[in-house]
Each structure stands twice: as C-alpha cells, then as structure tokens.
Amino acid sequence: MIERAALLNRIRTALVRNPVVVLSGPRQSGKTTLAREFVREESVNYFDLEDPVSLARLDEPKTALEPLRGLIVIDEIQRRPDLFPVLRVLCDRRESLSRFLILGSASGDLLRQSSESLAGRMERIEIGGFVLPELGSEAAWKLWFRGGFPRAWLASTEEESRSWRKQFIQTLLERDLPQWGARVPATALLRLWTMLAHYHGQTWNAAEPAAALGVTPNTVRRYLDLLTDALMVRQLQPWHANIGKRQVKSPKIYIRDSGLLHQLLGIGSEKELMLHPKVGASWEGFVIEQVLAGELFDESSFWATHQGAEVDLLLRRGDRLFGVECKRADAPKLTKSIRTALDDLRLERVAVVYPGSRRYPLSDRVEVVPLAELATPGRLFGW
After folding, report:
1. CA distance 175 to 299
2. What SS3 class is residue 280?
3. Phi, psi dihedral angles at 28 (to 5 degrees)
4. Which ranges of 38-157 would DSSP assign to H, the alpha helix?
5. pLDDT, tens digit (0-9, with 9 covering 90-100), for 142-174
6. What global pTM score does this model have?
7. Which of 26, 117, 125, 358 is most deeply buried (CB count within 10 A of its CB)?
8. Do residue 198 and residue 80 come from a single domain?
9. Closest CA to 30 of 287, 283, 300, 231
10. Residue 149 to residue 165: CA distance in whole angstroms
11. How far apart are CA 119 and CA 111, in angstroms?
C-alpha cells in the first residue's frame, strides 16, 4: 500500500470548503482506493455505478440520496450524468448535512456537466498515477520506465507490468471511450496514439498525422482532444512574450504516463529505452510531469522561437516566471538558449533537472538540480 498523504489532505481540505468535490483521473489511477479512505465500500453512503446494486438504488436518485447524512461517495459518475442536477438541488438545501465526493474517469463531458450543474458548489481535484513525492527518490528509475499507474508500477515482474499496460490501452480504446460517447474506431485511435508517442516532446502539426490516417486535420484535432480529455495526452501550450522574435505558436505533445509511452513505442526493456532515439524526449516528459505534480504554480507552458531558443517548461507564479530545462546529461552546462530565455523573458530563475546527484549553480539565476530532489515538493526553486 503506497501512502498518498498529500492527496488525502487535499481532498479533506476541499471537502471542508465545498459541498461537492470531483476527483477526476484516468481509470486505474487510484481514485477508488482514495475514496475508500473516507467511506467504506459496504457503507450505504457508497455508490459504485459499475455495480448493478448501486445503480438500482439510484433509480430514484433524489429519494435515495436525500435522507443520507455525512460524506457520500459516488464512483464512476460519468455513467449517470443525470445525477448532476440532483446533486445541485441537494447541495442547495438550507441546512444540508451532506458532502459529496464524486469520482469519474476523466472526460470532457464529465467536466462540462459538473461545472455547469455545480458551478460555485464544487472543487475539482485531478489525479494521475504515483509520483516521486509519494514513492521517494529511490523509485525514480522504476517510475520512469514503468510509469505511475499503480498496477503497472507495483507489478511483480516487467512482463506483468507490460501486460497490464497493453491491456489498459486496449480497454480504454474499446470500452471506456465509447462509453463516454466517442464514435471513433478503436483502431484509428490506436494508430493516432502511437503516432503521438513518436511526436512526444515535439510541437504539434495536425497535417502529417491527418494525411497518414486519411482524415482531415480537424478530425485529427478532435481525436487529439479526446485523448487529452482522457488525461492520456498533455498539450503543453506555448508562452507568447512581447519580443521582436518569431515564436512557436503550436502546442507541444506529451504522452502523460511514461510507461504508456514506452508501451506505445514498443520499448520492452531498460536497455531498449537507453538505446531508443526517443530516450531524451521520454526523460523530458517524465521530468515535466513530476514538476507539475509537485510544484505550486498558476500557469504552465513552454517557450520557443524559430531562431532556436527554447525553454522546456515555464511556470508562472503571480507575476514571476520560472524556467525548467530537462537534461539527460552527466554535467549540464549553461547554454545560449538559456541565456536568451533569461534575457528575453526576464526569468526569475531557471532549474536544469538532470539524473545526477549533486546540486550546483551555473550562474546567479541558473542552477542544476538532481531529479531526486523533486521527491520533496517545493525543492526545485526553494518555495
């Protein structure tokens, strides 16, 4: 059992502030395990909408939910979108004695329905798989190779981990996405997802995959948004600065879970990963996900110019900008690109994250930081 204390504390705090908390994330990312820390599965306050008994209890949802007190958990809420208006009514009771913890596999429809029906009454917490602060720095290599999905990371063998990831991809495409209303052939989505794995860490151009799939660029963008809504893909948006240089305007594409990335690329062993041409991009995406999971910020993006200057990740905190560079090198150096970004963007500081063990400065505003330090939230910039 992996302790996820920070997530549990976030949920507790959110439930104090709001009558409804929406816990969203991919299937098998640990949402149900977290919810059962608050309400036991056998409790009358626990509804699993993949269980026929729970579904039957909610045939008349207002009648079933209104008498209950305390915290009520509704798992797999996307199967019953008609519950959202009922929850709004129950939350607006003059002396409501209930709180609702709603769990849902991420989808655009789920977020739209919850935000429209429960505006001003809910807080959303997005979760993924395990991250370094939960596992500790000694787990970094295994986490990078296998990814953070609990069953993939906890598998007793590499073969078992790969088998689970393969089955997860198949289930998502053939069962989960169609349940959300996606009318896209699973084979087409798998081909696109595999193409996106080869785009990992690059700026997005819809024309190339559209030509390969024999569909229009707009169709490919719709497929991409579908995988993004499912929290399988991250579209990192570009930062636009008021400078006299042509800047990249397209998002960068990342497969959010490094284990799924390696599965889609056909990487079956650590040796194959080290020899694969996407190893640097895989490292970059892995570091970005760990930073975003452990650091406090208001907005995330990347920056690049057509002249070649770039920053892998920008974090805005208030009116200050911080840069993160991801370097899989033994001794990163201060590059021309970093100097340009410091001047053009007026960055407060830049952290260069690498796999080594020693933290050291490259200049007064640039510091090399070991990946292991991301296991302690806030260590990257000393926040």
Report:
1. 33
2. helix
3. 65, 20
4. 52-57, 61-65, 83-91, 108-117, 132-135, 140-146, 150-154
5. 999 999 999 999 999 999 999 999 999 999 999
6. 0.93
7. 26
8. no
9. 231
10. 9
11. 11
